[in-house]
Amino acid sequence: MLEQLKKRVCEANLRLVREGLVLLTWGNVSAVARKEGLIVIKPSGVAYDEMKPGQMVVVSLKTGEVVEGTLRPSSDTPTHLELYRAFSKIGAIVHSHSLYATAWAQAGREIPAFGTTHADHFYGTVPCTREMKQGEIENDYEKNTGCVIVERFKDIDPLQMPAALVAGHAPFTWGTTLEEAVTNSLVLERVARMASETLLLNPKQRPLKKTLLDKHFLRKHGSEAYYGQKKQ
Amino acid sequence: MLEQLKKRVCEANLRLVREGLVLLTWGNVSAVARKEGLIVIKPSGVAYDEMKPGQMVVVSLKTGEVVEGTLRPSSDTPTHLELYRAFSKIGAIVHSHSLYATAWAQAGREIPAFGTTHADHFYGTVPCTREMKQGEIENDYEKNTGCVIVERFKDIDPLQMPAALVAGHAPFTWGTTLEEAVTNSLVLERVARMASETLLLNPKQRPLKKTLLDKHFLRKHGSEAYYGQKKQ
Amino acid sequence: MLEQLKKRVCEANLRLVREGLVLLTWGNVSAVARKEGLIVIKPSGVAYDEMKPGQMVVVSLKTGEVVEGTLRPSSDTPTHLELYRAFSKIGAIVHSHSLYATAWAQAGREIPAFGTTHADHFYGTVPCTREMKQGEIENDYEKNTGCVIVERFKDIDPLQMPAALVAGHAPFTWGTTLEEAVTNSLVLERVARMASETLLLNPKQRPLKKTLLDKHFLRKHGSEAYYGQKKQ
Amino acid sequence: MLEQLKKRVCEANLRLVREGLVLLTWGNVSAVARKEGLIVIKPSGVAYDEMKPGQMVVVSLKTGEVVEGTLRPSSDTPTHLELYRAFSKIGAIVHSHSLYATAWAQAGREIPAFGTTHADHFYGTVPCTREMKQGEIENDYEKNTGCVIVERFKDIDPLQMPAALVAGHAPFTWGTTLEEAVTNSLVLERVARMASETLLLNPKQRPLKKTLLDKHFLRKHGSEAYYGQKKQ
Fold first, then answer.
1. Dihedral through CA D130, CA D136, CA D142, CA D145, nearest 10?
2. Cα separation of B160 and D132, whole Å?
3. What gap in Å lies between CA A175 and CA A179, rounded to an integer?
């Protein structure tokens, strides 16, 4: 089932490796088939150089149970499920431990929009969750990881801010498509590094003013976008 | 029309990718045909791995209108036009969001000439524009981006300083030829990184003294240059 | 003798090069054959691009004498022997001068577990030895390098902490298998870099709380691990 | 003449590119034929991807005049000559603007021996020249660049310290052979970066104690060396 989607999820996982976002078996990508109520996700701890579309695991969006697949799904599956349930318009999720975005998460700092590179993709400061409580870690840890992200997004539109840092852990990004979700991980890593380098040069730098943030985000996103070619 | 120039502009755009200066569809290169009053520029938001010379867009230097091409020109086209109009001796322009040069732009800092690597290519501190005003952002933003660069160059010879940082945005470089303009982006990125590393080691370092700056810039540029081979 | 192990030790040495952990002839990997009381180790100062399995040197675990091989063993052999003698459950050792882990060793700082990437592989702060004394350096230096590591591990389980920094020198990692030992070097380098970048963003950051450290280390290691696929 | 040496000098220049030490046409390598009183050096400003052994330029060690070759020699030739004249046992010289070593030169700081990686190759702090005076820059600049290096080495053995930083400029390294000279540039760049990262972690770190410096340098160099294989 969902063979085409498995192929695309597998390919998106492999792209993380090619783009230098993951080491070893780190990282995972999933996509959701809303109509079917299913997600397709990378298996846990499988070497990338042997990964095949047929190894992708199909999991019920509602119950979290494996519907198809002989391998265990990524141990982060409950986090993905929580995000898909809360953010009803997203179609794919990427989790990586990419170097600079992870450093920001480890520092417990949110990434300010210091420039238009950031503003072209993320509409404001990239949020970081609060630290998780002892009980949230001890029981249903991976599900609770999703919950603290959702909690942090109470007043944030996940399509305007397709990225979150989990404090002490690493980033998650998403998008309406697999391509968008992977692109957002790639851009997040770049703007995280740019922001680190910016702070070394100007430790008190303030974020972009609202007008400039709006200009860049909205010329690429939303109804009056004029960047790129006209959609057919 | 201008098929040869389209080929060279396309190739220069692809070189940005090979040199690691751009991600995704970021960055754009253009060249001007002064006699014809036309510029050739990269289309907006097209994937580099499918880019073809025939997709380059021809735009009127005077009116900014598309003269030939089925795709939209780069959204930064009005910036390029403004620079070509003000800097009458330049032949090509490169815009990238390269990591370190962008960090300096985001920090709102000009790059001092800390060493002879810098002095070999840029005759003094690489300038950074002022922040743009609300009205300049809301209306004709891309044109005004060119205007703040030109304003900053009131007393600077653009051939002796073929680079500018736009505050909160990223660098532009140029040259009399496409090759020079791309080379200047590559060198700017390198000297930006060297300058960041220099400041970590010596936060109060002063720029090179004038004699040494002159020596290095002028042994490669100007009438008494003696670096490289004799021009035929 | 031990031809199969020589092949694997040679391959593990070459993997260090491919992963960018060593320059020139730096670094060395060994493995132990406990039953035979022998170790197999890289020869000293041989170029990686000409390295052959047959050049690996077989050394007595007990006496440190060369049992087979025409080349001198790595000059760090006495360090490896000391570790194999003290840590009876490890099967392989890797020594590199990888950039960031070496910077921490040079700074004489232990690497705190700032995030779950670290906690997935190392159960707490990566320890750094004390400085070696004049007499320890002048006589039996390489053996004493092993001794100061062992001294630092008096109250640490080497299987839960498969890495050590030698002050002013560089890291050693180990594992029950060659693959684990190399992987631990690779991960150590990455978490060292992440930790450096974390401190730039938050110089006073505290290590992960114990609950989160436990959660991540123990979901991948120990009897109740649930990361990856079931072992057959 | 010296066709074999030209081939090796050309190859050493190309290795700088492969190792990532140079951009564009930056950097130059030379070797000396002491018996013949000649040096062989890279031509000035020639693209590396078209460089041929036959383009190497032969220059008189005594007079600095071109003895063979149709291209101009590197503009840094007078610096090389000065070093060969003063350091009678060196056989080859490398000049690059490699990123981290150049940052130290730009910062005007000498590189302390913070670890054994450094001590394995450089016997103590890597020296940096004083700033050059106005007259030294205006007249015979490249020759005077050599002179300030030689001046700084008044009490230093160039074979024990095969590297120098020129303040505000970049590094020079040398060796008894071409291979050694290139290796020393490669290692200098690595230890410069390690030292920068060490200072970020421990801004007050002190250099290695003398005993450890001696141990590492002398186990690889000098009459009692025991690193590597026996020389035939």
1. -20
2. 24
3. 8
Q: How far apart are CA A112 and CA A208, in angstroms?
A: 8
Q: Is C31 exposed, middle or buried (0-12, 13-18, 19+ CB in 10 A)?
A: buried
Query: Are B50 and B73 spatial neighbours (Cβ–Cβ below 8 Å)?
Result: no
Both tokens assigned to C66: 């060369």
Q: Is B227 a catalytic residue?
A: yes
Closest CA to D163 of D137, D142, D184: D184
Alpha helices in chain A (DSSP H): 3-18, 77-86, 99-107, 116-119, 134-138, 141-152, 178-201, 210-220
Residues 6+ apart with CB under 8 A from B209: D131, D134
Candidates C106, C109, C111, C129, partner chain D, best to mutate (most D CBs within 10 A): C106
CB < 8 Å to B24, chain A = 183, 186-187
Q: Could you tell me where the DSSP H helices lie in chain D?
A: 3-18, 77-86, 99-107, 116-119, 134-138, 141-152, 178-201, 210-220
CA distance C35 to C23: 34
Measured CA to CA, the distance from residue B69 to residue B119 in angstroms comes to 40
Element (H, E) at B175: strand B171-175
Local confidence pLDDT in tens for the 232 residues of chain C: 999 999 999 999 999 999 999 999 999 999 999 999 999 999 998 999 999 999 999 999 999 999 999 999 999 999 999 999 999 999 999 999 999 999 999 999 999 999 999 999 999 999 999 999 999 999 999 999 999 999 999 999 999 999 999 999 999 999 999 999 999 999 999 999 999 999 999 999 999 999 999 999 998 887 777 777 876 5
Task: List chain B residues with CB under 8 Å of D107.
Answer: 114, 198, 201-202, 205
Q: CA B182 to CA C154: how far, in whole Å?
A: 58
DSSP string, B180-219: HHHHHHHHHHHHHHHHHHHHHH-TTPPPPPHHHHHHHHHH
Of A75, A107, A137, the CB nearest to C201: A107
Q: Which residues contact B86 (CB under 8 A, 6 or more apart)?
A: B146, B150, B153
Quickly count helices (H) and strands (E) in chain A: 8, 7
Angle between helices B178-201 and D99-107 (to 10 degrees): 60
Which backbone phi and psi does B138 adopt, to 5 degrees? -70, -35
DSSP B32-45: EETTTTEEEEPBTT
Q: How many residues are present in chain D?
A: 232
- Across the interface, whether the CB atoms of D43 and B229 are under 8 A apart is answered yes
Helix ranges restricted to H, B28-160: 77-86, 99-107, 116-119, 134-138, 141-152
